[in-house]
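Extended Data, panel c. Modelled sequence:
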Amino acid sequence: MSDNTSNISIDEWITGESIPFDLDSSASLDAAIDETIAELGDAVELLGFGEPLHGGEAGTLPTYIFAGFVLTSLIRPQDTLAWIGNVIFALVAIGLLIATGNRVRKLE
């Protein structure tokens, strides 16, 4: 992964870091997955592609919270405002999940 990401656009970052593959070729997709796992190194023992809590009512919201922190750490780790924005989004999202859960339980 590049060390100089503070002065590039998101499109330039994606172009430089992406691993191209052909969806019509299982060999191409397998090679891209192998390359992705190899770049992660030995520190990762289990890697899941997909959505946590798939099928759950609130499955995507925790994914967005997690992705915000991961992307900030990869793209703009020194950007304090981005980190603050992630924390505010996470707190509001969790608050909405709790409020929605309480509301649904009252209606049942």
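The mean pLDDT is 82. This feature is highlighted in the accompanying rendering.
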